[in-house]
Amino acid sequence: MAKDILIVDDEADIRDLVAGILEDEGFEPRLAGTAREALDAVEQRRPTMAILDIWLQGSDMDGLEVLERLKAIHPEMPVIVISGHGNIETAVAAIKYGAYDYLEKPFNADRLIIQVTRAIEAAVLKRENAELRQRAGGELDLVGRSTAMNAVRQAIERVAPTNSRVLVSGPPGSGKELVARMLHLRSRRADGPFVVLNAASMAPERMEAELFGIEEGAPGAETGRRVGTFEQAHGGTLFIDEVADMPKETQAKILRVLVDQTFERVGGRARVQVDVRVVSATSRDLAGEIEEGRFREDLFHRLNVVPLRVPSLSERREDIPALVDYFMAREAEAQGLLRRRVAEDAMAALQTAEWPGNVRELRNLVARLIILAPGDPNTPIRSDMLPSDISASAPAISRAGGNEEIMALSLRDARRIFEREYLTAQITRFGGNISKTAAFVGMERSALHRKLNALGVNTLDKSTQRA
Ligand SMILES: Nc1ncnc2c1ncn2[C@@H]1O[C@H](COP(=O)(O)OP(=O)(O)OP(=O)(O)O)[C@@H](O)[C@H]1O
After folding, report:
1. Where would I find the Response regulatory domain in this sequence (predicted)?
2. pLDDT digits over 304-327, tens only?
3. Which residues does a 6 A CB cutoff place in the pocket of ligand 1?
4. DSSP assignment of 297-338, as one string?
């Protein structure tokens, strides 16, 4: 995406000179000759950055005041100020007001280009850092090599660079937001912002101010003027989570933005232009919501240009061991604790459990186990240490055997262990009486003897002993 740079200078020659230099470098200059023109231009669309002359003749505000206003509206937007020769103090004051840097007149083209490039890079880095912090523990890759997950991965690679809108569907906690982040990171907008709006957790009366921003003085703007999520996402991706929870009036407004990419802030009249890719997600069946009259069909078609379904965890149980290992490593590091090994019977239980909360539920369980599973950190986590609803799904064989490793063995070895434990238990049950045991388990007495010998089970046959 071309980076647009607002050039604010009262001298037309300087404006044109700066614009020419930047245009040659592939930037998209926008020009303003007065403070008012500058503020109007920013109002209409947030530029990537601004270059601002401190001395603005013929304006009702000086450059420092304009700088202050710009910083109040878009604190993250870099501004480089131009100061006349001998005006270093003012330039330094501008830095205190939040300017990224200053250029002293006369300046040469190379210096201008270096400063502009550096300012944009710094803003991108700052945003990335902020996003990383905000994500706190979020993933940037999808774990799991099941066929279902590979299909999701392939779809992401195909769709991400296209700029199409995507509707991600899937049950709660299955990884829809993660998929949306990957769509952003693999798109040409990757160095733009990724902004999340959760329609489910937002009061309907606040939704519009949140999406479109609000002007000072409008009802609900107690904290002053605010930029909405659509504007924050300019040049990047807006992720609308649980889109089915959006009130119907808001749905109509979103539809308009999607059609012409402009909107008005709440309490404002100016049209704001944005360039935003919308990725939305739902865990509900939108077709059903449309039928019930709760979701607009025309909006559905606009959002659902490319549908992408994230499978539930129970549709890809073979991914569970890799997910467990991955979360175990991450959570152990985050908590400053040692990783625990998960014994095979516990893994088998995790792979057979139902997981209504999908990957999120599995992640939370692993985090809990690291802290709460009994035994020292070198003891493997066995199925009987899992919460009862999960351990109940451990295969009966591994619970009955009490041998946590049985699920790791070949059928031949597992059968041997099973037979030994089963027969030892039965003999114990019948007080060591081989005849009674043989009758119960359905074997000839002599065959049972041979079997016990082969398995290395020592018995004192009590059926031949006189009481
Ligand atoms: N394939 C995966 N690999 C690694 N981590 C995953 C994977 N899928 C989901 N997660 C993790 O599981 C948690 C839940 O995922 P996410 O928030 O993306 O789900 P969601 O479907 O958007 O949830 P909700 O429906 O509640 O909004 C997050 O911590 C996410 O990082």
Report:
1. 4-120
2. 999 999 999 999 988 999 999 999
3. 138-139, 142-144, 170, 172-178, 241, 281, 283, 359-360, 363
4. HHHHHHH-SEEEEPPPGGG-GGGHHHHHHHHHHHHHHHHT--
